[in-house]
């Protein structure tokens, strides 16, 4: 038989079921939980595609807890995810970028996980049709459905699943359950299924691209400046060529490219934003987990991102993520530019 029409495809559901089979102790709850995530992603994908046609672009008229204007699609995407995840019966708590407080699931629908998510990340790009995405992280609650909210603010290293879905020229869902494996799936719109297209994504140890909002460089500390100077104006001894710049301003798209092509993505702290911009629970933790599982590293400059413990659900942190050699250079820049602390405190 020819391979023109593949008949034995690895769908996301089949992949998750196979993972369940490999782990005989698995109860199947995570498979059902992931089904809720898939439904949310497919629903948002269809709305992003038709946003311009059915007047879903523009502002909703509200501001979220972080003082950002909510777009119509932000609000809608959040509702889609909350409903799909709640219906799965596998989550007790949800933390969403779009909701000020923890979403506590009604008792009859509670399960043993907590999920944190940004339903539509990069939404300032929506009206221009630029890539946006959903980011999510899943945690097991030690006390299961009886858990209390204090079980949410734990170190990032306790995350058990992380992923993102990118709504771009195609719809890509990238997922890890740990075990040093990151898998990429592409939505086949005709089938309505995510198909495994990027098995075992590995981030190259050294890349040639840097991705950062250079418009903030006036406010950067000495370590951040020194690092970016070192890859833009490399010393002859380093043997490096100047890196290329690529910045979409949509974390999902910038991280996706960094995973596939290598390099470094950063949102550092600066004198305007002392903790950077990206939120720990639903942006930095899942992306740091994915990067590490793909063989890379994620740091704040001085600390592994997954070692952080947030104090509040919407806390932020600086982040540099990428290949091991690239991030080693970032860590070196921070170790040898110790004035960074004074500078960001000015
Ligand atoms: P957005 O504000 O458009 O939602 O955290 C949100 C985020 O986008 C990230 O997706 C993106 O990486 C970053 O902010 C872009 O921020 P700047 O506009 O400050 O560069």
Walk me through the structure.
Pathway: Carbohydrate biosynthesis. Residues 203-333 form the Fructose-1-6-bisphosphatase class 1 C-terminal domain. The protein is α+β, with helices and mostly antiparallel strands and 346 residues long. 30% of the residues lie in helices and 22% in strands. The protein has an eight-stranded mixed β-sheet with strand order 4-3-5-6-7-8-9-10, with helices on both faces. A hairpin with a 3-residue loop joins strand 7 and strand 8. Helix 1 runs antiparallel to helix 2 (29-50), helix 2 (29-50) packs antiparallel against helix 3 (72-88) and helix 4 (222-232) packs across helix 7 (324-336). It is globular and about 60 Å long. It starts with 11 loop residues before the first helix and ends with a helix. 2,6-di-O-phosphono-beta-D-fructofuranose (FDP) binds next to helix 5. 2,6-di-O-phosphono-beta-D-fructofuranose is lined by residues 121-125, 213, 249-251, 254, 277-278, 283.
Main β sheet profile: 8 strands, mixed
Proportion of residues in β-strands: 15-25%
β-strand number: 15
Order of helices and strands: HHEEHEEEEEEEEEHEHEHEEHH
Structural class: alpha+beta
C-alpha geometry: globular
Separation of the first and last Cα atoms: 69 Å
**Cofactors, ions, other ligands:** 2,6-di-O-phosphono-beta-D-fructofuranose
Average predicted confidence as pLDDT: 92
Count of DSSP-assigned helices: 8
The level of helicity is 25-40%
CA-based gyration radius: 20 Å
Give start-end ranges of low-pLDDT stretches.
none
Order of strands, widest sheet: 4-3-5-6-7-8-9-10
Pathway: Carbohydrate biosynthesis
GO molecular function: fructose 1,6-bisphosphate 1-phosphatase activity; metal ion binding
Cofactor: Mg(2+)
Family: Belongs to the FBPase class 1 family.
